[in-house]
Amino acid sequence: MEISKEIARQVGLLINRRGVVEYVVVGERGKIEIPPLAMERVGRARFRGLRFIHTHLKGELLSREDLTDLAILQLDLVACVTESRGEAGELAHIGHLVPESKTGKVWDFIGPLPIQELDLDFIQFITELENEFVKARGSYYLVEGDREKCVIVSVVLPKKQKEVEERIAEMKDLCYSAGITVLDAIVQRPKELHPKFFIGKGKIEEIIMRCQQLGVDLLVFDEGLTPGQIKNISALTDMRVIDRNQLILDIFAGRAETNEAQIQVELAQLRYILPRLAERNTAMSRLTGGIGGRGPGETKLEINRRRTRERIGFLEKRLEETQHVRDKKREKRRLSGIPIVSIVGYTNSGKSTLLNLLTKSTVETEDKPFSTLSPTTRLIKYPERKKIIATDTVGFIHNLPQVLFRAFMATLEELEDAHLLLHLVDVSSPDFEERMGVVDTILADLGLHDKKRLIVFNKIDKVDRGFVRLLEDRHRAVSISCLKKEGIEGLVAAIENGLIHHSPFTGRI
User: What is the distance between the alpha carbons of residues 460 and 354, in angstroms, rounded to a whole number?
Assistant: First the structure.
């Protein structure tokens, strides 16, 4: 304290758990900044292993900036030494993080109290504190096992306030499909988006504190982020950051089983990565020369771009080859004269389950988004063999990443041959009408808005039957429950009625 007063500047020490001073920091009279720290936390239940002790010259206690540094840097504790007002001697004021509590507190304090009265066994204190964090998080680990855990960050602009619950529910479903457990969802309602961090720095501080309480190292944003925003948020939070597009790409990559689906997904991932290679970093800045070449040659960044483009070109040729095979199969079906019915709809609406019921197949089904990526074609056999071909397609979703939409265009082209589209709707979803609009928009983008369609409301066992009847009249639709196998006979009859003249025609049933 005497040195600090003599130079009229705040002085701080960063001390590790062995009692060794790692850094000496000299600030200004009214503030002090902690330098970038190289040491990382050992695990989710561990702090950084450093405590920050510094002086205050105006008699003030720990400031909001001090506590923010405590949370963002995940320090063991932060303490200030200041002169006591009106009394001789110096005071110590200590702040530390606390596990999630009913009071909503993020941190707690020791003191302020005279330095001579401070009796703190630091090693015992920090060991017990970390054990409290482990205990507080234990229930999540027991319930969810080894699944990765995340916090969803939802940014809602003023014009979209009504969509919050539906968006978060869909993001939770997507995370579940990707094998991620969602521990919390944090919503910000900014007037405008922050160009550097997408959200305000104050909100990022709140997110960091919440993630520290929950032991989470992964943030999932429900919007698409720029490469710079992902880099900036990750650097500030010291956490992994992915956006909605990356999450969907990851789901597709994990569920692609056929050769064609794997090509499509890899192609989509490379197209997504290519523009992100434009951002240089130290690992890509070294120059690579070539034998007999003039000048420095290609940079590693340029080599990565070139190799990525070459791989994209190779995969595009492979995809064309598979498309030729698919075109031959389509032509064979056309020549057979057998009418084709294609099932379309929002993801997780029950398309594969319906295909199994109609065709007595065993296509894998799961109650999660994008459980089916590759189209499946079967003959309808319910209640007996019919001269009708049924095909299942990949599920639609709002704001589908363009790279994925482009990659699956070849698959969706099969819809052009359909004589009837079954638009399957999960009527138990709170936003089913918005989802119907998404499917209509995508079909229009594919040039299929004039295709004959039959709307089929699924999961009627979960909603009021009077409401279902109103929807049937409004949309001239049929209703079923794939789970209860209810209404399937009526659906088959409606399909047959719609295919009485299966030459090209327009309009809805």
Answer: 14
